[in-house]
Known about the structure:
- The protein has 11 helices and 11 strands.
- The longest helix is centred in the middle third of the chain and has 20 residues, at 79-98.
- It has 263 residues and is of the alpha/beta class.
- It folds into 2 domains: 2-203, Alpha-Beta Complex (2-enoyl-CoA Hydratase, Chain A, domain 1); 207-253, Lyase 2-enoyl-coa Hydratase, Chain  A, domain 2.
- The relative contact order is 0.10.
- The radius of gyration is 19 Å and the shape is globular.
Amino acid sequence: xxxxxxxxxxxxxxxxxxxxxxxxxxxxxxxxxxxxxxxxxxxxxxxxxxxxxxxxxxxxxxxxxxxxxxxxxxxxxxxxxxxxxxxxxxxxxxxxxxxxxxxxxxxxxxxxxxxxxxxxxxxxxxxxxxxxxxxxxxxxxxxxxxxxxxxxxxxxxxxxxxxxxxxxxxxxxxxxxxxxxxxxxxxxxxxxxxxxxxxxxxxxxxxxxxxxxxxxxxxxxxxxxxxxxxxxxxxxxxxxxxxxxxxxxxxxxxxxxxxxxxx
Length: 263
């Protein structure tokens, strides 16, 4: 059932899942300023909605998840404008990492430039075997500006990140999976099923603990090991104090499936 109405995305909430569809199929779901703002608004809404436990981001049509930025908005930027533009994009992608709910990128076609930067900000990435990936900004005389140079390096390592960002070439889904950019690749006709299976697995877990795990990983990776381990201990303490923790322990001892309440 549709909720809020937007010009460039479709936002739906159903059975504890919020789905955000980038909806500019005529331009392969290219990102303009309005779309970024709408995505941000929908993500904030999903985070605040207690009935939503999982978020899915995908692209309209079967040709593209998102083919990148609307180049007409970039062409006129100067140095200061470009910096501010990039910082604004960082606000959007950082929000995705700060949200305490798991976000799945359902990748159904071209996933390039800013589209790949959105996907890399998600917690899970499942792709059709027809999907193609890349950071082609270098071919336009610029570089990734929505966090791509940093997240790509963290996901696939310095060597492959240099290659992908400096050559600007596309890679196919199997290669993206091989280098660690994706969680899973499936035949195009099985993409819906694969994402639905992941959703059901996530919904069977404690939503509050999933959020704590996400924070522990995303914040911890930015710290030195000693501080990260202490932060993990704090997160463990927070999780151990939840009702879900007590339910999980009881269910294990009673040899039954846990029924988590998200608190």
